[in-house]
Design a protein that fits this description.
Belongs to the DNA polymerase type-B-like family. It is found in: Cytoplasm. By secondary structure, the protein is an alpha+beta fold. The protein has two domains: 107 residues, 2-Layer Sandwich (Beta Polymerase, domain 2), CATH 3.30.460; 196 residues, Poly(a)-polymerase, middle domain (Orthogonal Bundle), CATH 1.10.1410.10. 43% of the residues lie in helices and 13% in strands. It contains ten helices and ten strands. Helix 1 crosses helix 5. It is globular. The two termini are 22 Å apart. The structure holds 3'-deoxyadenosine-5'-triphosphate (3AT) and magnesium ion (MG).
């Protein structure tokens, strides 16, 4: 469908901006919610150190990188057992044991998933109803959480954009990688990439800057990047785009501009790669590579691989709907975020 880039009158964008910023403020977790999450983490930690005194218990995911939005009180926890083999079988066995241990410790709805791609135990902390996902030695997730957290520190527009996009994705029911749409982590990478692509750029590419001040190798993956973000404060200040312009740019890109046939979004390089460069041109098993988002560290991992023909259609329709609503309505927010 034809569209006119930049067609929105300035006054309308300014009004929308005000509404969007108010919504971002409303979506921030309250201090009480953060406290409940902290209490849950401590309850879990004390259950785990009894069994593994040498373990470390890390928080990762959105509660650790400032990108959580309220009423989504899940926390992601990683049990780090130094010296443990990192193969999926061993992790699966630990997950089974964890399940028993957490039940004995009084946790509720304990569900161990030892055979998942990333073995996990899901449960609810009885005292305060916080939902928890525990994984074992999930070091890549700890490192990618830190990368996202470092990007968040660089320009406040990233947090704002992620907040709106995540909220939209939940409302429109396109935020479930188990059901063939995209994970929150994937949407955040899409937002970072968009801000790397703006002219002038709002975000740098931390993995191309030298020297790599953070260095860590996880299995076969080198996770080095420049993490001295204090030195990069003000990087994006030459770009004056407002949140409403960026929200529009996000949906415009994914509705009409993205080259779904060939392009791979790569935060690692700050640009686009091609599917042939990645050898993501054909279906292998259940991995279809219809929408390609490269994981910044685990380079064989396409975060869009869960999208199939049907959900690809759903996603595309939702991106177009959002872009049309933003383009056509004078006051689009309610319609944009209408529950599916
Ligand atoms: P929510 O606020 O919970 O929706 P989140 O950022 O916590 O968003 P998830 O709960 O989906 O995102 O995932 C938690 C973390 O797990 C984010 C990232 O560090 C890691 N992670 C999730 N999915 C993947 C993946 N496919 N590959 C690598 N790491 C992942
Ligand atoms: Mg999470």
């Amino acid at each position: 469908k034809a569209y006119v880039p930049g067609a929105k009158p300035k006054a309308e964008l300014e009004a929308l901006d005000k509404e969007l910023l108010e919504l971002v403020a409303e979506l921030q977790p309250t201090p009480e919610e953060r406290q409940r999450q902290q209490d849950a983490l401590e309850a879990v930690r004390s259950a785990l150190v009894k069994r593994w005194p040498e373990c470390k218990v890390h928080l990762f995911g959105s509660t650790a990188n400032q990108l959580s939005i309220c009423n989504n009180n899940d926390i992601d926890v990683c049990l780090e057992l130094p010296g443990l083999p990192t193969d999926a079988n061993t992790k699966g066995e630990i997950v089974e044991e964890l399940g028993d241990l957490l039940m004995e410790a009084g946790m509720q709805n304990v569900l161990p998933l030892p055979k998942a791609r990333v073995p996990v135990v899901k449960f609810v902390v009885g005292d305060n109803s916080v939902k928890v996902d525990i994984t074992v030695n999930n070091i890549l997730a700890i490192v990618n959480t830190k990368l996202l957290a470092d990007y968040v520190k660089l320009d406040e527009r990233l947090l704002q954009l992620c907040c709106i996009v995540k909220h939209w994705a939940k409302r429109r029911q396109v935020n479930d990688s188990y059901r063939g749409t995209l994970s929150s982590y994937c949407y955040v990478l899409m937002c970072i990439h968009l801000l790397q692509q703006r002219q002038p750029a709002i975000l740098p590419c931390l993995q191309s800057l030298k020297p790599a001040t953070f260095q860590r190798t996880v299995g076969q993956w080198m996770c080095d990047y420049y993490d001295d973000v204090e030195q990069l404060k003000g990087f994006g200040s030459a770009n004056k785009e407002s949140l409403s312009e960026l929200v529009w740019a996000f949906f415009e890109h994914w509705a009409w501009k993205h080259d779904y046939n060939n392009a791979v979004v790569s935060v690692r390089t700050g640009g686009f790669l091609t599917k042939s460069q990645k050898e993501w041109t054909r279906r292998v098993g259940n991995e279809r590579h219809l929408v390609c988002i490269e994981d910044p560290f685990e380079l064989t991992h396409d975060l869009g691989r869960t999208v199939d023909r049907q959900t690809n259609g759903v996603l595309h329709k939702e991106f177009e709907r959002a872009a049309c609503v933003l383009r056509d309505l004078p006051s689009p927010l309610e319609k944009l975020l209408e529950p599916y």
